[in-house]
Amino acid sequence: ASSCKLWSLDRTSFKVIVVAAAMLKREIYQGFLEKVPILETCNPGEIQTLADSLAEETYVDGSVICEQGAEGNYFYIIKEGTAKCYVGDKEVAALNTGNYFGEVALMTNKARQATVKAEGELKVLALDRATFTRVLGNMEDIMKRNMEKYKEFVMGEL
Question: 3 burial class (0-12, 13-18, 19+ CB within 10 angstroms)?
């Protein structure tokens, strides 16, 4: 509809740029994931699969990442910042870098057990249900143990 300037890129150059960006993302995420305590039992291949599958999301202060009672299709690992967890109107936990949430809904197919909100700017790494099951399914015992601690905490606070 009007004049414009176009840039073109040959196929080979495009592929090189895309592959280089994916490799850089993988290296950065792998380094971070290796320091997340819950993932220390994962082998390098599983960490690599996770790194390739993660999507980074940024939330501003007060944003709701997941809502109590809603269906859960994602698992989250906090990359930077703080998230607060609420059951009803009551704050039950604060999560920081390396902490995770969302596993209860994925492992049990139950609705979200808490509302999670950003406290300040928050960056999370999100993992969809299919990848979570394929890669982290072998960690189900560890995660269930942590779910029990969460239940005890919430019940003790009520």
Answer: exposed
Counting DSSP H helices and E strands in the chain, the numbers are 5, 6
Strand ranges (E), 38-114: 55-59, 64-66, 74-87, 90-95, 100-101
The enclosing H or E element of 131 equals helix 129-136
How high is the mean pLDDT of the chain?
82
pTM of this structure? 0.74
CB 154 within 8 A of CB 101: no
| Partners of 122 in the β-ladder | 59
Tokens found for residue 136: 């982290």
Nearest in space to 116 (alpha carbons), one of 58, 54, 68, 59: 68
Strand partners, 116: 66, 85
> 115: exposed, middle or buried (C-beta count within 10 Å: 0-12, 13-18, 19+)?
buried
Question: Helix 129-136 vs helix 44-53: angle between axes, to the nearest 10 degrees?
Answer: 170
